[in-house]
Design a protein that fits this description.
Arc Repressor Mutant, subunit A, 3-stranded antiparallel sheet, two-stranded antiparallel sheet, 4 helices
């Protein structure tokens, strides 16, 4: 009886969490139940916010990867650093050279790394 009441509230309430075949208020042992898959549509504004957050996360991940590489190598040629960073981040998704260049510039501004002529050095 408790199961029937629970199924009835899930299938016949205001918000139908379960779909019942055949439709109706009475529950029989032969009735078939399925999960009601409600599609929540994202607005374009939410989509933009999500995309912006993903871009920020990628930028931080790229910067963290560069710092980890520089901790190991201490000194590194610019092109070698870019290539190594792309190879490490390739597993996580597509990273462009422009994103890596931007991350290097941010780290130079924050003084996490510095340029000594041609090679880049970790501080």
């Amino acid at each position: 009886k408790e199961l029937i009441r629970t199924l009835q509230s899930l299938a016949c309430g205001k918000v139908k969490i379960l779909l019942k075949i055949p439709k109706g208020k009475n529950i029989n042992t032969t009735d078939l139940f399925m999960i009601n898959q409600v599609q929540i549509k994202e607005t374009s504004e939410e989509n933009k916010i999500i995309h912006k957050n993903i871009q920020k996360d990628r930028a931080f991940e790229t910067q963290a990867t560069i710092v980890r590489i520089m901790k190991v190598k201490k000194k590194c040629n610019h092109t070698e650093l870019v290539q190594t960073t792309i190879n490490v981040l390739k597993q996580r998704g597509i990273t462009s050279v422009e994103e890596v260049e931007l991350a290097i510039e941010k780290l130079l501004e924050k003084e996490y790394i510095e340029k000594e002529g041609s090679p880049i050095v970790r501080r």
